[in-house]
C-alpha cells in the first residue's frame, strides 16, 4: 500500500477486515476476517496501482482494502460451499 508503510498496511487491513465483516454480515471468526482484510488491502492496492490509479493516504487505502476484503470474503464463501 503506497504511502502508509508496513505498519499502516496492517492497521488498515485489520480495519478493512472488520468493516468487510460488518458489510457482508459474515461471522467467520475474528482471525479469518482480519487475515482477509490484510490480504484484501494488499491485493486491492496492487491491482489498483497496476490499473494506473495511485491511492495515497489512509482513507483511500481503507476504502480500497475494505472493497478487497469484501471480495475475498465473497470468494471465501463461494469456495466453502
Describe the structure in your own words.
The protein is globular, with a radius of gyration of 12 Å. It has one domain. The mean pLDDT is 79. Helices cover 79% and strands 0% of the residues. The protein has 81 residues and is mainly alpha-helical. The relative contact order is 0.23. The longest helix is centred in the last third of the chain and has 23 residues. It starts with a helix and ends with a helix. Helix 1 packs across helix 2 and helix 1 packs across helix 3. The chain is built from three helices and no strands.
Residues in helices, as a percent range? over 70%
Overall SS class: mainly alpha
Overall tally of domains: 1
**Helical segment tally?**
3
Shape: globular
Q: Mean pLDDT, nearest integer? A: 79
Taking the alpha carbons of the first and last residues, their distance comes to 31 Å
| Strand residue percentage | under 5%
Order of helices and strands: HHH
Q: Ranges with pLDDT <50 over ≥5 residues? A: none
Question: What is the β-strand count?
Answer: 0
Biggest β-sheet strands, sense, barrel: none
Rg, nearest Å:
12 Å
Name some characteristics of this structure.
cell membrane, 0% strand, 81 residues, 3 helices, mainly alpha
Short description:
This protein has 81 residues and is an all-alpha fold.
Topology at a glance:
Layout: H1 5-24, H2 30-50, H3 58-80
